[in-house]
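Q: Can I borrow your eye for a moment on a structure tokenisation matter? Would you mind producing a protein record, from residues through to fold? Write it directly below this note and I will take it from there.
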Amino acid sequence: MEKVKVEICCGTACYLLGSAKIMDIESALPEALRGRVEIEARPCLNLCERENLGGAPYVRINETEIVAKATLEGVMKRVTELLEGVS
């Protein structure tokens, strides 16, 4: 079974701008998908420096895809697409 890795930045800026809500992603996913997501809270993804905080909160999916201005709904949608084979 393939898993999707979701790294959620919990640095100060990202946390204050909504990453705390994104941490609830596993309980918000449909039950059939819950065991297929690996969620990791990261102290900082070091992405704010590039954008001067303009894109916070940040989420990294499968170590390469960056989601800026991430929301729980947006990350859930992308994770579901990946798990269902939609690019």
Notes: The CA atoms of residues 36 and 77 lie 14 Å apart. Helices lie at 12-22, 25-28, 48-51, 72-83.
